[in-house]
Amino acid sequence: MKYDVVVVGAGIAGPIVARNVAKAGFSVLLIDKKWAIGTPKQCAEGISIKVFDKYDIPYDKRFINREIYGAKLYSPSGYELELRYKEVSGVILERKVFDKMLAYYAAKAGADVLARTEALDVIKKDGKIVGIKAKHEDKPVEIYADIIVAADGVESTIARKAGINTYAPPHEFDSSYEYEMLIEGLDPDLIHLWFGNEVAPRGYVWVFPKDEDRANVGIGIASDHPETAKYYLDKWLKENNIPMRKILEVNVGIVPVGGFVKELAKDNVVVVGDAARQVNPMHGGGMAEAMEAGTIASKWIVKALEEENFSLLQNYTKEWWETDGKRLERVLKVRRVTEKLTDEDLDLFIQLLSGADAEKIAGGDYVEVIKALLKHPKVLMSKRRLSLLKQLL
């Protein structure tokens, strides 16, 4: 098989790249090792409403479980911070359907799509990568392409085989554990987040409603913590008297929360999405980030093919690092500061911050918020708090 572009991985970034490049008139093959694209999910499934228009994705009720109007944050001592909008601010997806539909949109744009096709290695000729070795339904296959896109997740075989350094230390990953389950008593129009060093070390517990009484209930904690994410989630459920007798699904995963890949393009190989660690380090969400990276990457792939000049792929690295990469590095600074907060600090900041402040901090646009916090008496009275917050300026 021979294509202009082969895209390895049909999560979020891969289908965006495949669709955009196919729309430009080039031959594209999108492959995924799973039997059914989108399964199993490893995601809390929440995403901003803004992505649909921004990345030209239909607002299709087939993959939207519920519209969300904001969020509520809970401190270790039970202080609450609510951010509620009058209009829909986000949705809870059904990733099993959403991912498959993204692949469908790529196919409609002209890309070929093959499930149950696992990339195993790159093919080299005269020292250059000219394709990939794979197995399709357990049969070996060679796929030749001018450009290879590694969108194959956190452990990215193709990026590694292409010689791209994707190493990050264990501390730059979170372990997550999630139940899809029946749960009652929480406002289903909001997502709910609980913080605390005894609740979720370095992370949080989440409840993302999918129905009035059904939700994704999960947790993320530092992957190098001695206890497991499951231990802390089960502990939280027990302490809050939430019965665990109606669990519909269990999902486990590793989430990158730092260690962004520096070299996003090497010769004719491009890396995007989780494979490039393009994830928000604060909340661990990566769908919007994958869409953005996929959009930037596909623009430069098209230009490289049009001008038959693969050195143009380096502009993907340059543009991403000057835009979204710069923003995510600011968010990473916040994550590293929040790791050092005590429960007393978390109580204080949830009391002091507004919902809009919390949103700015999570998005990396936090300078004015931090400046205001530095003037508060309870911050001024603590040299440690002053020192931590000043690290963000």
TrEMBL record:
Cofactor needs: FAD
Pathway field: Membrane lipid metabolism; glycerophospholipid metabolism
Record: residues binding a 2,3-bis-O-(geranylgeranyl)-sn-glycerol 1-phospholipid: 327, 363
Reactions the enzyme catalyzes: a 2,3-bis-O-phytanyl-sn-glycerol 1-phospholipid + 8 A = a 2,3-bis-O-(geranylgeranyl)-sn-glycerol 1-phospholipid + 8 AH2; CDP-2,3-bis-O-(geranylgeranyl)-sn-glycerol + 8 AH2 = CDP-2,3-bis-O-(phytanyl)-sn-glycerol + 8 A; archaetidylserine + 8 AH2 = 2,3-bis-O-phytanyl-sn-glycero-3-phospho-L-serine + 8 A; 2,3-bis-O-(phytanyl)-sn-glycerol 1-phosphate + 8 A = 2,3-bis-O-(geranylgeranyl)-sn-glycerol 1-phosphate + 8 AH2
EC number(s) reported in the record: 1.3.-.-
Ranges of residues in domain Digeranylgeranylglycerophospholipid reductase catalytic: 174-255
Taxonomy, superkingdom: Archaea
Additional observations: Reduction reaction proceeds via syn addition of hydrogen for double bonds.
Protein name: Digeranylgeranylglycerophospholipid reductase
Function: Is involved in the reduction of 2,3-digeranylgeranylglycerophospholipids (unsaturated archaeols) into 2,3-diphytanylglycerophospholipids (saturated archaeols) in the biosynthesis of archaeal membrane lipids. Catalyzes the formation of archaetidic acid (2,3-di-O-phytanyl-sn-glyceryl phosphate) from 2,3-di-O-geranylgeranylglyceryl phosphate (DGGGP) via the hydrogenation of each double bond of the isoprenoid chains.
GO biological process: glycerophospholipid biosynthetic process; membrane lipid biosynthetic process
Family of this protein: Belongs to the geranylgeranyl reductase family. DGGGPL reductase subfamily.
Cofactor binding comment, as recorded: Binds 1 FAD per subunit.
Organism per entry: Thermococcus gorgonarius
Cellular component annotations (GO), alphabetically ordered: membrane
InterPro entries hit by this protein: DGGGPL_reductase, FAD/NAD-bd_sf, Geranylgeranyl_Rdtase_fam, Geranylgeranyl_reductase, GGR_cat
GO molecular function: flavin adenine dinucleotide binding; geranylgeranyl reductase activity; oxidoreductase activity, acting on the CH-CH group of donors, NAD or NADP as acceptor
UniProt: FAD binding residues: 13, 32, 43-44, 46, 95, 119, 274, 286-287
UniProt keywords, alphabetically: FAD, Flavoprotein, Lipid biosynthesis, Lipid metabolism, Oxidoreductase, Phospholipid biosynthesis, Phospholipid metabolism
Keyword Magnesium assigned: no
